[in-house]
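Hi, does anyone understand the following?
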Amino acid sequence: MLIPLSVVILITPLLYIFRDTLYRLFEYQPEFLWMIPSFLVFNYCYEALFVLLIIEKKTKQMALMTVIRTGVEIIFSFLLIYTLFPTWYGRALGYGIGMFVMTNIFIRYVIKNKFLTRNINTRLLRRELTFGVAGFSLQMAIFFLISSDKFFVMVNYGKTMAGFYSVAATFATIQYIFSSSLLQYLQPIIYKSFSEGKYWSKVKPLFMKYVLIMASVLFLLILITTFIYHYIIKESYKEHIYVFYILATSTFIWSISNLFLQTIIYHKNKRIISTLSAIIIILAFSINYFTSKHLNIFWLGIGQIFSNSIMLLLVLYFSQKSGFFHKKVLQ
């Protein structure tokens, strides 16, 4: 817990001090001041909970946590979008509530099982904090890649279109939840293979199974969401179903990037992670700003496919540079 809390303590004053400058340059919203630090801690607790469950091989509890988080996030996102906040803010709050629930479960689980320790390895803490900065930049890049478009919709297209876009994004994001949950389970298996020096030809079957599962999720999601658009939600949403199809494609591409990203995270190469993060932040912001400012919402959606495709190509490139596709994974 010290690592995410230390990062939060460092970045929160900076976000506050430069809030006016960030608003002039990027139309930075005041809500980000509490959302970014809070969501960072929530996300850490969620991932730490899954790590503990994986170590103890509690697959049923993992599945239950995934169902709880997914259910809470989707239900509250729809309720908030349909009632109080028909904007990106409603979607973000739905995500935050889901992660807050997971954080509470994590804290209860840690206390119940007495996992807290009073002995702190300062050398290890310094090393992990150094990597934590690069890790935070990667989390920021992922945020820009998969979430910042909703903000630009609100700013440039108004509340009504933001509502249509947020509903489509909520359905498409189900893939992201599946991808993250599946990788939480697969990560120890993948990392174990890497530690044993197993290269691409050895882990390829596992990677292909993951891609097949995510393709199946995409197919089922399209079927179910199309039915919901035509027969359950308001008629006005139906004419914007194309936004869902675009965002679902974009999120599927991201799920593949997320898989190969594990090869980069495993080696904790701060230079590669920082470079990748900087490129993605600049790319995602530029595409979202240009398309939302000068084109319609269709092209903003296409921009998400383009950004995620570039992300996938960059991840594959850096994976190849690290030796992943050769006879062994290089350190």
Observations:
- The chain has a mean pLDDT of 78.
- Residues 1-119 form one domain.
- The longest helix spans residues 148-195.
